[in-house]
């Protein structure tokens, strides 16, 4: 987990990741200012080192002189060895109300130059001649990562075509969506996707995935939307990719702050939904894919408060994306975390959390556990306290009661994380439960519902469970699919175990492993600090 420093009042925003020559290149926004696109590198997708920033807002009078928004980096299909970054910009001329798309190029992913633009600085027509002379001398004859040369033959910055999309700030909405570019290429054809809005229909249902075709190198023409479900205000940060003949479209929705996806066999055909098209639970946003040597990875930023996506955001570890036999997508734990196993926790030494009770007891049968609470709540925890771990097992339950997992629970106060698992309905809920300051009255009880997720299973009473706690990162998988993915720092270590209420829980194939703790703080992208007492080479 990595973020900007809280004291800096900055936060990581939308991300894009490229894998090249053994390095992951992370490009990300810095909120709330949006003044530049930052760049960090990693050889393992977990430890990051900030390097020189990629792009900055343009000088006053340019099309991108107010803010930079979401970007996408991909190989230049017309010049091998070169990279293109399509990015979003807004101008002071429009008070930031009209979004446009620009491009920058690089030969090494580190040094970027903005592409030529067909944009004229219209400011100061009545300026004194001495001021006009100074401004003329300041015009750039070469491009860099701030300035772009003016070229009437350029198609940049790209803007929405009124034939298909909302394009005027004089509409009821008062601002124009045309952002979050994503370049997709198949054989000798290339398209640019973006978050746009159709120009008719209910006002807050016009969000679509806009489309432009690359008709010649770096020249684009508008096409009708790739996907216009007429349900959402915007479909943010679109991604398009293909797996085994099926096309998939990923987008993020502000309505519920989740990442969703759609699928089709043919790009000329309508996009379809599965019964569950949520790819990541609430709080995970602006998903982006990248391809490395092992396949496709999904990245995103995590926000603790979905109503405020500009502060305290974090970059969690990526997820490995794969296709199920039925065509649905699934997310698996990133193997880089699995490689951090250091040794087993003794899972045969347990005790009850709430003291001895006749109606609650457990049995060890070979390698299996039988946890029983005939009435009320009882926790069953391992003797050894643990910080970072991977716990996996198989759950099967008898009875109409409840069950779940206890994580980093304090042995005295019983404060910690309580992971509720409704095996019948297929609902997982990650909760923080702790004691506030003494004599704080009703505020002594501090309960937070951190994240909910859902699954379906052919046999709901028999499931595979995996829980990972890695620094502030928490991840729950059911039957091999990531269901919950979140960040929280309320508790750093404590007891691990299970709880049962008025039921019998059978646990087998149990394996608990210690994980090597993160070697960087959550704020490492800004501070460069390693975890206390540890060093990092990255």
What's a concise summary of this model?
The protein has 538 residues and is mostly beta strands. 3% of the residues lie in helices and 49% in strands. Keywords: Glycosidase, Hydrolase.
What features would you describe in this structure?
With 538 residues, the protein is mainly β. The chain folds into 2 domains: 14-334, Glycosyl hydrolase domain, family 43 (Tachylectin-2, Chain A, 5 Propeller), CATH 2.115.10.20; 340-515, Jelly Rolls, CATH 2.60.120.560. It is built from 3 helices and 33 strands. The chain has helices spanning 129-138, 335-338, 524-527; strands at 11-20, 23-31, 36-42, 49-56, 67-75, 83-90, 99-106, 113-114, 179-186, 189-197, 207-216, 219-227, 236-243, 246-253, 258-264, 278-280, 284-292, 295-302, 319-323, 329-333, 341-344, 350-352, 360-365, 368-382, 389-398, 402-409, 416-422, 427-435, 445-454, 462-470, 473-478, 481-487, 495-515. The strands form 6 sheets. Strands 21, 22, 23, 24, 25, 26, 27, 28, 29, 30, 31, 32 and 33 form a 13-stranded antiparallel sheet that branches. The protein has a 4-stranded antiparallel sheet with strand order 1-2-3-4. A hairpin with a 2-residue loop joins strand 23 (360-365) and strand 24 (368-382). The chain is elongated. The model is unreliable at 532-538 (pLDDT under 50). It comes from Gimesia fumaroli. Belongs to the glycosyl hydrolase 32 family. Keywords: Glycosidase, Hydrolase. Residues 17-123 form the Glycosyl hydrolase family 32 N-terminal domain.
């Amino acid at each position: 987990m990595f973020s900007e420093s809280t004291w800096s009042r900055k936060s990581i925003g939308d991300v894009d990741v490229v894998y090249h020559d053994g390095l992951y290149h992370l490009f990300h926004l810095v909120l709330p200012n949006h003044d530049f696109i930052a760049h960090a590198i990693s050889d393992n997708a977990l430890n990051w080192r900030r390097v020189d920033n990629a792009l900055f807002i343009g000088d006053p009078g340019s099309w991108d002189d107010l803010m930079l928004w979401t970007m996408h980096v991909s190989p230049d299909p017309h010049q091998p060895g070169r990279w293109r970054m399509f990015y979003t910009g807004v101008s002071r001329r429009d008070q930031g109300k009209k979004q446009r798309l620009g491009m920058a190029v690089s030969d090494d992913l580190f040094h970027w130059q903005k592409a030529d633009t067909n944009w004229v600085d219209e400011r100061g027509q009545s300026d004194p001649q001495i001021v006009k002379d100074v401004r003329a001398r300041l015009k750039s004859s070469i491009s860099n990562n701030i300035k772009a040369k003016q070229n009437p033959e350029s198609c940049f910055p790209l803007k929405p075509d009124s034939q298909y999309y909302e394009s005027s700030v004089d509409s009821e909405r008062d601002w124009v969506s045309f952002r979050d570019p994503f370049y997709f290429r198949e054989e000798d054809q290339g398209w640019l996707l973006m978050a746009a809005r159709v120009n008719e229909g209910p006002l807050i249902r016009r969000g679509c995935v806009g489309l432009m075709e690359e008709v010649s190198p770096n020249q684009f023409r508008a096409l009708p939307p790739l996907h216009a479900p007429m349900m959402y205000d915007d479909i943010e940060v679109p991604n398009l990719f293909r797996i085994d003949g099926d096309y998939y479209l990923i987008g993020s929705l502000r309505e519920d702050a989740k990442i969703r996806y759609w699928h089709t066999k043919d790009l000329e055909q309508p996009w379809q939904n599965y019964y569950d098209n949520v790819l990541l639970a609430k709080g995970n946003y602006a998903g982006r894919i990248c391809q490395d040597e092992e396949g496709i990875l999904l990245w995103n930023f995590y926000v603790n408060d979905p109503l405020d996506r500009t502060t305290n955001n974090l970059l969690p570890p990526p997820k490995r994306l794969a296709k199920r036999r039925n065509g649905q997508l699934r997310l698996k734990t990133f193997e880089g975390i699995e490689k951090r196993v250091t040794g087993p926790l003794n899972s045969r030494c347990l005790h009850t959390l709430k003291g001895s009770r006749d109606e609650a007891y457990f049995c060890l049968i070979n390698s299996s556990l039988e946890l029983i609470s005939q009435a009320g709540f009882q926790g069953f925890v391992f003797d050894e306290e643990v910080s970072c771990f991977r716990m996996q097992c198989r759950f099967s339950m008898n009875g109409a009661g409840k069950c779940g997992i206890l994580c980093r629970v304090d042995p005295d106060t019983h404060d910690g994380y309580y992971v509720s698992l409704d095996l019948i309905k297929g609902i997982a809920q990650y909760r923080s439960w702790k004691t506030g300051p003494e004599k704080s009255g009703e505020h002594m009880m501090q309960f937070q519902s951190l994240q909910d997720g859902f699954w379906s299973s052919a046999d709901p009473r028999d499931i595979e469970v995996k829980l990972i706690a890695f620094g502030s990162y928490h991840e729950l998988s059911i039957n091999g699919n990531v269901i919950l993915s979140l960040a929280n720092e309320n508790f750093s270590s404590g007891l691990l175990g299970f709880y049962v209420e008025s039921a019998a829980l059978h646990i087998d194939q149990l394996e608990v492993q210690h994980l090597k703790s993160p070697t960087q703080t959550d704020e490492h992208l800004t501070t460069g600090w390693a975890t206390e007492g540890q060093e990092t080479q990255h």
